[in-house]
Automatic annotation (TrEMBL):
InterPro entries: 3'-5'_exonuclease_dom, 5-3_exonucl_a-hlix_arch_N, 5-3_exonuclease, 5-3_exonuclease_C_sf, DNA-dir_DNA_pol_A_CS, DNA-dir_DNA_pol_A_palm_dom, DNA/RNA_pol_sf, DNA_polI_H3TH. One of its GO terms (molecular function) is 5'-3' exonuclease activity. Coiled coil: none annotated. Belongs to the DNA polymerase type-A family. Residues 4-267 form the 5'-3' exonuclease domain. Residues 690-893 form the DNA-directed DNA polymerase family A palm domain. This is DNA polymerase I. It comes from Pseudodonghicola xiamenensis.
DNA sequence: CTAGAGCGCTCG
DNA sequence: GTACGAGCGCTCTAGC
């Protein structure tokens, strides 16, 4: 059939399909030989789904899958940095690229690519040709670069979200019509493709400008007329760069194709070609399904696994469907769910609450899921009426199971040892349930599964995971709750909407569990998950619920004292400046220092503002300038007041009189915890004035605070891992490690050590842990770079194991894309093979991660064993600060607890790892944290 | 008013 | 252009 009026051309962006498939699926391999095949599998499934969906009245008459070919295109000739910061193709994906071409042909769909051109250019050319012949075009892609083609019978279809994008859709995305999209892109640039654009101008501003001036050329010609000085300057100065950007984003509609639209006519797949291909790939489920469709016999695929048995197949994709969720509004229905859970032995659980602070919020509803697509929501305390009316304006919505009845019904399964409860960030839900008298156990946590598998690759929030691994964008909570002043709490969300949202969360959690759990074995992180991640949940939940007592009076007094001092300093600063300004504004301060007073060294950062960091001000103060010296004092007080004495008071729980932080288990890529709301891991200690904040952290009456901290744990780990005999011996002899290092490096006997030499050695020791560089050390010690490099060279000479460790670690990271701690924790370093400064960052992070991560593993092991070790004593573990644990202990039991805790901490590496350096924990005690430290 | 970016500072 | 890993408060700007 000749292409013409009435024809409908579908153009599929093949690369997008492949990458989507690759990232959405676990790393599947072909059973017979282990060839990575996940992307091909996903690609075939997507093609199959496409073919099924594409039938019907709006079916295409012509279709092609378009691929990129080669990494060098004509755009690189215009701009050699085009797509320069693209990550390299993952190793597992490379061999799959040709297979996806074969797959396309096996489905009997035209498969097109052209050396030196991107798929987008071919798509552009074909779209224009089809339009000129009076046909319609649907581009199956979500790539915004293709939006310039929309209009005049050309539309886009985002296959993942199943959303059509027409001219209005483009307008929504870019603020201009398709014909002006390239103008907006030329201004806004694109960090993914490394299109420079105009710095400081994003899509919103670009659209505004284009709409005002009509098009890019007019805008650039009349740039003088722009009112905002910064924009005007940017557009005038960066004109060449903007014009180049336009050429980069403008698609080529005249690519030299060696085929015509007529060649793309839709053809039925040939079973004799397609089925053998699927058999070769060993896609059992898919070949069966397609064989049924084509009315042919499914090919027999031999089952010759090379991998361990118990290797689960990828979960079959069940589409997300909110209408399939059940809203449970009576006890009989809930009992049916409970029976189903008992039958299944496992359930995904999620709670909905009135806020985010587990210690104060109320339970609003519970959702459950027992299979992909099968989920329910149990509304419990949804209300209606005025949410701010404290006098009964809000009333409970009818048709909800009474809270106590529902909990009584669920409690037996939630506490049943034989039933696994899955959650996403289960610590949150477990704490909520605990407050309602339900002790949830045993558990799995999809957030922690992802963390064990993917630390360093991406975040582990549900939205990220769902989009990445399920290809599904969860219902956002924003539209339900609103924002700002008008925001409501979840109990005022209508049950219908709440139900769809909440049940979906449980459904997603279930599917993530199905996706991740089988991968633990394959990726060899089962032990990490089971001994370092999951057991942290109950331990941290206990610590967080215990909280630490904070004396409001102490903070309040300090706050007043700080305020007075600050007022005095502020007056002095204004006096010295000769005008009043906001001392807290780095921008205004910079202008005073470097413009008005013309002090030396005014360096501007990337936003054009002067840098006024402590290092800059210290240099100026050292030259005898009073104003920067006063500002430094003011800043210190300001920090202490706002972040600590003031903000901390707001975190005192009125019921407990204590501060309950929240630890994020998957917060740091290295295995460290992070503390939030409030962060109790950065309470001041280094300055005398700051340290006094710790006096406000107190023990309850009759008790003391006890602190144990690992002495030099990271250097000890380094000495072990890099095998540094001199350092190991110094530790064995209990020497001052920095002095010993200095002695070794500078040939100074210990009894002649000076503080200055020791200080330098200390800086170098830390530098090594951080992935040392001459530049970094020079800046830290404020010495010339060459001198710093000399220090490093002699360090490497005296401790040759260091160099080997660094080289081996780097090589391992480059080969595998991750590094490991002594306990097997993986920390991914995806940028290690990048180009430019990013590689440097990745390299230093790779050096540091095994050291910092091993220390994190060790204290986690100690924390997990601690509750049992002190169970019979009147003591509670309250806080962790990376290498320190803080307890609250009855006065008369302090010595016993110290001994027990020390034993656990010092033996925490055993028996999994035998360190050839001993671990030492120092202890301190007192009425408050300042005394105990 | 609200959201987000950037800066600066706190800790191990 | 750089030391590694985090969280949070303030200012400033853009946009509703």
């Amino acid at each position: 059939m000749t292409f013409g009026k009435g024809c409908h051309l579908h153009l599929i962006d093949g690369s997008a399909f492949i990458f989507r498939a690759f990232h959405a699926l676990p790393p599947l391999t072909r059973k017979s030989d282990g060839l990575p095949i996940g992307a091909v599998s996903g690609f075939c499934n997507m093609l199959q789904k496409y073919v099924e969906d594409a039938s019907g009245p709006d079916a295409p008459t012509h279709v092609a899958v378009i691929f990129d070919k080669g990494s060098h295109t004509f755009r690189n000739d215009m701009y050699d940095l085009y797509k320069a910061n693209r990550e390299e193709m993952p190793e597992a994906l490379r061999p799959q690229m040709p297979l996806t071409r074969r797959a396309t042909e096996a489905f009997n769909i035209a498969c097109k690519e052209l050396e030196g051109y991107e798929a987008d250019d071919i798509i552009a050319t074909l779209s224009v040709q089809a339009r000129e012949l009076g046909g319609r075009v649907t581009i199956i892609s979500s790539d915004k670069d293709l939006m310039q083609l929309v209009g005049g019978g050309v539309e886009m279809l985002d296959a993942m979200k199943n959303r059509r994008i027409d001219v209005d859709g483009v307008r929504e995305k870019f603020g201009v019509g398709p014909e002006r999209v390239v103008d907006v892109q030329a201004l806004a640039g694109d960090s993914v493709d490394n299109v420079p654009g105009a710095p400081g101008i994003g899509i919103k501003t670009a659209a505004l400008l284009i709409n005002e001036f009509g098009d890019l050329e007019t805008l650039l010609d009349r740039a003088e007329e722009i009112k905002q000085p910064k924009r005007r300057q940017t557009l005038i100065e960066k004109r060449d760069q903007i014009e180049l950007s336009k050429k980069l984003v403008q698609l080529d509609t005249n690519t030299p194709l060696d085929f015509t639209l007529d060649d793309l006519e839709v053809k039925e797949p040939d079973p004799d070609v397609l089925l053998p291909f699927l058999a070769e790939m060993e896609f059992r489920t898919l070949s069966k399904r397609i064989a049924d469709k084509l009315g042919a016999e499914a090919p027999v695929i031999a089952d010759t696994p090379v991998q361990a048995a118990g290797d689960d197949p990828a979960p079959e994709a069940v589409p997300f469907d909110a209408s399939a969720y059940e809203c449970v509004r009576d006890l009989e229905t809930l009992e049916k769910w409970v029976a189903a859970i008992r039958d299944r032995g496992v359930v995904a659980v999620d709670t909905e609450t009135t806020g985010l602070d587990e210690m104060t919020v109320d339970l609003v509803g519970i959702s459950l899921s027992t299979a992909a697509g099968k989920a329910c929501y149990i509304p419990l305390t949804h209300k209606t009426g005025a949410s701010d009316d404290l006098f009964g304006g809000a009333t409970l919505v009818e048709g909800q199971i009474p809270l106590d009845d529902a909990l009584a019904c669920l409690k037996p399964v939630l506490e049943d040892d034989a039933i696994l409860k899955i959650g996403q960030n289960m610590k949150y839900d477990a704490k909520i349930f605990a407050r309602y008298g339900v002790k949830v156990a045993p558990i799995d946590d999809t957030m922690l599964l992802s963390y064990a598998l993917h630390a360093g690759l991406h975040g582990h929030g549900m939205d990220t995971l769902s989009e990445r691994y399920l290809g599904h964008e969860p219902i956002p909570i924003k539209p339900l709750l609103g924002s700002g002043k008008s925001a409501i709490t979840f109990d005022f969300v209508p049950i219908e909407e709440a139900s769809a949202y909440a049940a979906e969360d449980a459904d997603i959690t279930w599917r993530l569990w199905e996706t991740f759990k089988p991968q633990l074995h394959r990726e060899k992180v089962t032990t990490v998950y089971e001994t370092l991640e999951r057991p942290m949940v109950p331990v941290l939940a206990e610590m967080e619920m215990a909280g630490v007592k904070v004396d409001r009076e102490v903070l309040s007094r300090m706050s007043n004292a700080f305020a007075q001092k600050m007022a005095g300093l502020e007056a002095e600063i204004h006096e010295l400046a000769g005008e009043t300004f906001n001392v807290g504004s780095p921008k205004q301060l910079g202008e005073i220092l470097f413009d008005k007073m013309s002090l030396p060294g005014g360096k501007r950062g990337k936003t054009g503002a002067y840098a006024t960091g402590a290092d800059v001000l210290e240099d100026l103060a050292a030259e005898g300038h009073d104003l920067p010296a006063r500002v430094l004092d003011w800043r210190q007080l300001s920090k202490l007041k706002s972040t600590y004495t003031d903000a901390l008071q707001d975190h005192i729980n009125p019921e407990t009189g204590r501060v309950h932080t929240s630890y994020i288990i998957s917060g740091a890529a290295t295995g460290r915890l992070a503390s939030t709301d409030p962060n109790l891991q950065n309470i001041p200690v280094r300055s005398e004035e700051g340290r006094r904040i710790r006096e406000a952290f107190v023990a309850d009456e009759g008790k003391l605070l006890l602190s144990l901290d690992y002495s030099q744990i990271e250097l000890r780990i380094l000495a072990h891992m890099a095998d540094l005999p001199a350092m190991k011996q110094a530790f064995a002899e209990g020497q001052d490690i920095h002095a010993a290092t200095a002695s070794e490096m500078f040939n100074v006997p210990l009894d002649q050590m000076t503080p200055e030499i020791r200080r330098q050695a200390k800086a170098i020791n830390f530098g090594v842990i951080y992935g040392i560089s001459g530049f970094g050390l020079a800046r830290n010690l404020r010495i010339p770079r060459a001198e710093a490099q000399g220090f490093i060279d002699s360090y490497f000479e005296r401790f040759p194991g260091i160099k080997d460790y660094m080289e081996e670690t780097k090589a391992f990271a480059k080969e595998h894309g991750f590094v490991r701690t002594l306990f097997g924790r993986r920390v991914h370093t995806p940028e290690i093979n990048a180009k430019g400064p990013r590689a440097g960052f990745a390299y230093r992070a790779a050096i540091n991660a095994p050291i910092q991560g091993t220390a994190a593993d060790i204290i986690r092991r100690a924390m997990i064993r601690m509750p049992a070790a002190i169970a019979d004593l009147p003591a509670k573990m309250l806080l962790q600060v990376h290498d320190e644990l803080i307890f609250e202990v009855d006065e008369n039991a302090v010595d016993t607890v110290t001994a027990r805790a020390r034993e656990v901490m010092e033996g925490a590496a055993d028996p999994a790892v035998h360190l050839n350096v001993k671990l030492v924990a120092d202890a301190g005690q007192g009425r408050n944290w300042a005394e105990a430290h």
